Amino acid sequence: MARIVMKFGGTSVADIARIRNVARHVKREVDAGHEVAVVVSAMSGKTNELVGWVQDASKAEGSNLNIYDAREYDAVVASGEQVTSGLLALTLQAMGVNARSWQGWQIPIKTDGAHGAARIAEIDGSFLIKRFGEGQVAVVAGFQGIAPDNRLSTLGRGGSDTSAVAIAAAVKADRCDIYTDVDGVYTTDPRIEPKARRLSKISFEEMLEMASLGAKVLQVRSVELAMVHRVRTFVRSSFEDPDAPGMGDLLNPPGTLICDEEEIVEQQVVTGIAYAKDEAQISLRRVADRPGVSAGIFGPLAEANINVDMIVQNISEDGKFTDITFTVPSGDLDKALFVLGKVKETIGFDAVQSEPGMSKVSVIGIGMRSHAGVAATAFKALADRSINIRAITTSEIKISILIDGPYTELAVRTLHSVYGLDKQ
Ligand code: ASP
Ligand code: MG
């Protein structure tokens, strides 16, 4: 017997027929004798609709301002998961499975007070463990919790992945299965490179980079939590026949296992290629080269909640001036330029140059820690395709390259093949 947390995303619970299919996946594990807790998202599109209503309702007549009370936002958008948790419990009951739905506050899933983007502070696993003892399948509404002000909170978009991993950690589950509309984590986006392969395993560290650098399979926070608590997490498809052979395999169900790197025997140098479109590049020319300048630039940007990514500073030629280049999401460019305009006098720089429509393509793999030449291979391959590199940043396990947006697909395919990812 194992203890399994099963999470189903929005497309997997999009209508009653799909919820029934989900119930069959759950029943399979229950029939195999496992202790099961389920976490659900809202029906696909539902949360967007709710967010739209919140925005509409909070506009003063004739105004275009998008400001709303985050507590009421939470009260509204958390409702999508309430609906699906109840519907799945009903469907399971109709199949003869002992099931009951639970909202975040009932467990309770305690969060901090950052309404709209709350972080889970604490989950006492004993409530769910008691349900296991009663032979009950607890169906938990994902994405939501309860804040210190005793009000509903939500975890930020995509947050039900995080609910599932946090619950798996709290009940010390053997596995957390994230069921979604793809059948695993791929070496790159198969819509760009049809030769992309499904990975059977990927390390927590690599998955964290993949998720932060643009792969949209899992919420970044959920991967962080899985890594910290060492939760073995499977990404798998809910659309496969729940009773197909191997689906109930305890150790190796079909999908991608996110796990400790020790578990990965055949380590590749490069595991995957991720990309993020819609980056904007900002360069500050002739910035005074003295202590406090970077703090003076990036402090105000952070206060304005602008997510700065790649940062490159030149070594000053004359000891007086330097250039600083960095990227922000294209959507934040105007705001960033506004903030920079305000600090221009105090910092002292000549000019701001900016360009939206950039892409960041990243090569990821823990194998590069112990291999030389991985970066050079990427640069050469891009050069051979006449793709110009605008900026580069690296970490121990990734190389990120900023290029012009229209070359994104070509760069992804080029890098995917140069590291042999399209071959078995
Ligand atoms: N329903 C929420 C959203 O769309 C949470 C989730 O699906 O993970 O963001
Ligand atoms: Mg999701």
Automatic annotation (TrEMBL):
Main EC class the enzyme belongs to: transferase
Tagged with keyword Thylakoid: no
GO biological process entries: homoserine biosynthetic process; lysine biosynthetic process via diaminopimelate; threonine biosynthetic process
Enzyme Commission number: 2.7.2.4
UniProt domain ACT: residue ranges: 282-357, 363-424
Family from the record: Belongs to the aspartokinase family.
Recorded GO MF terms: aspartate kinase activity; ATP binding
Protein name: Aspartokinase
Binding site for ATP: 7-10, 180-181, 186, 191, 216-217
Ligand binding (substrate): 47, 81
Entry keywords, A to Z: Amino-acid biosynthesis, ATP-binding, Kinase, Lysine biosynthesis, Nucleotide-binding, Transferase
Species, as recorded: Oryzicola mucosus
Taxonomic placement: Bacteria, Pseudomonadati, Pseudomonadota, Alphaproteobacteria, Hyphomicrobiales
